[in-house]
Amino acid sequence: MFIGRGAVIVAVLGLFVIASGIALSYSSRSGAGEDSCQSGRGEQSIMGFWNRLKAGASIARMLLRLPPAHCWFMFGQLRDSKKKWHNGRLRINSFLPPYPSRAFNRWCDHALHRRRVPLSAYMAVTSRCPCRCSHCSYAHRGYDDVSSERLAAAVRQVRELGACMIGFTGGEPLLRPDLAKLIASVSDDTATLLFTTGHRLDVERAKKLADAGLTTAVVSIESTDPDEHDAIRGHRGSFAGVQRAIEACHQAGVFTSFSTIAFADRIESGQLDRIYELATAWGVGEMRVPNPVATGGIAGCSGSMLDQQQMEYLRRIHKKYNDRKRDGGPTMASIAYMESDDLFGCGAAYHHMFVDDSGEVCPCDLTPLSFGNLHERPLAEIWEEMGEYFPRPRCGCLMNEIGKRIPCNAQLPLLPSQSRSLVSAPTDDMPLPRAYQGLLTIPSKGTTCPQGKEGVCQTPAGSDEGPKDTPHLPATYPVTTSDSESLPLH
Ligand code: SF4
Ligand code: SF4
Fold this sequence. Notes:
With about 500 residues, the chain is of the alpha/beta class. It contains 16 helices and eleven strands. The strands form two sheets. A nine-stranded mixed beta sheet has the order 9-8-7-6-5-4-3-10-11. A two-stranded antiparallel ribbon has the order 1-2. The site of one iron/sulfur cluster has 10 residues, from loops.
């Protein structure tokens, strides 16, 4: 007994030291120089040190709640991401809320209880955009803007469903004059992202967005060559707008990210590397690199898709640019790496959701399949129905499976009846993405899910164990441990 307790204490201390070490070493490696562009130089203070220590403790406590094999796996993943300190908060990447924050606590609580909840929900707030990109994922849609009240009601439903990160996108969300109000309407237990071209974003507006609580501005960029960038956008002056927006966000204290689609020619020509260098020079905090998906403007264009070798290259650059021996530069967030079967796989309608600007609820922003409209039916009901088709994360991108069956030039998103006919639920013999192996179990057919026992569903809607402010939490997935307490991170 004594030895058992001793081993546990040693393990706890060991994990604490390791996690604190991660937090401290990354912060000292990124140093004041990296933070200084955006976050002020107060990181040398005792408070900064204390925050890092708390971050280490939280990471250790979170890891301890996971099965040991999974804990080891996640530890390896943490090492593969370049962490940054921004305004006194730890940023692993923009797919996670900053730490410390109530959004981070909620994220951990959902994750540890293995809830099927949209951890991140992206919401289009307008179809309007000054640009005309041929690859636009929002092509073939077009609505009149809905009122501020209707949009705020939609945001409220999304948050109540459990979203800890809401990304406002479009179209160009900055075209909505009520954007700051909308961001402010999101409680501080939910991080907010803005996906933008940077259109006319000046310091004054960036400060308003920052005051409203904006967590991250993701500014898209097509090329380091201003003329080429503007030509792809079909909008003269767009590149200058990107630079102005990044500078404005830094002055306003908003964490910044670049987003660039990794088309094959950008890989072959070294454009991605040049954009990374530009991001470094401009002090951008992160670079998101989504791979092309045959949707919107490139629906049916199989020629735009990457081959295995190119996808492998994208997985490699994630590790290459996040290498801890490499000083400076933004965190690399390559979607080919993060959504690979070796990591999180496809979280569409499991841990991710998209709502278009007319309220149609889709599995992800690149999956133009509606399962209902949240202005017509409660979102919680739509989400629960989607669970029949998306009961767990999948291996492989759903759009790779069904993209070819979406008619070219169809009005998007497809109607719920069409959407249901395209998607089939993963079968029990399909493997889980690696990050979920050991955490989720695949139920045998007809299995019921009584509560409160090892290996079964837990923390259903309305349970005392869940956060009090998320009344519509949907059913959770069977888990492999009996860990069912809430996680008090502070
Ligand atoms: S800037 Fe974005 S929203 Fe606008 S057309 Fe281009 S891809 Fe579409
Ligand atoms: S379908 Fe899945 S893998 Fe494909 S883009 Fe959407 S979330 Fe990512």
